[in-house]
Design goal:
There is one protein chain. By secondary structure, the chain is mainly β. The chain has one domain. Helices cover about 5% and strands about 35% of the residues. A four-stranded antiparallel beta sheet has the order 4-13-7-10, with no helix packed on it. Strands 6-11-8-9 form a four-stranded antiparallel beta sheet. A three-stranded antiparallel beta sheet has the order 1-2-3, with no helix packed on it. A hairpin with a 2-residue loop joins strand 8 and strand 9.
Amino acid sequence: MALRPLKGQPGKFLDTSSGKVLDISEFREDDKYDTIIIPNGGIDAGAEFIFFRDIQGKRPIDTNFTQTSRLSAGEEMVVERVGATMRLATGNLIPVPADYKRIMEDAHLRVTVNQLLLIEGPLVKFPSGYGMSGQTNETDNGIVSIGVPSTAAASKLIKTQMLTNKHEVEGNMTFFNRAWAGPAFLAGDPPQAVVDLMPTIETPIFVTLWLHGLVKAAVSK
């Protein structure tokens, strides 16, 4: 999808893929988001965590989806950016920065719309522009985030994506088996022991996936 402004019609854009005219003045800049939990302990090879699917019992701090994998009836959204954050605190749970590093560098994210690929790559590819950064004097020193806390520094999609409640959106975060790298640790004299390349985290990690862009609420709201 690509939006092209219509000459002489302020606020109106043409969706060049569908031919539909959008009145941007009816939209607001906002996010749709969902949160998953990665339990503490060892993460199995091939483990998957799905966003936007399991929303039962979640509150607005965790998700603003009210239907599984779909926008609410009457809602529309122009998705301009996809980002992820790991919560620095949930209640009194304070994950250590080392766990953030393990998740950030080992997870792979794939986002689809109607089972068609929107964007994918290592989790570190998806800065959201939200969050904190800097240094503290906590155990396991430091605060880390996916990218700097600036929305201006978070890259936008080259081609925006239009969503309605007829689209099924899903985010799939996977921890792949990296057995291919095992032999690298056998080099040297004497050979080194093979290292387990799957991460183990000390505390549960709450991860939020953000779809940022322009949102049009249902007329009844």
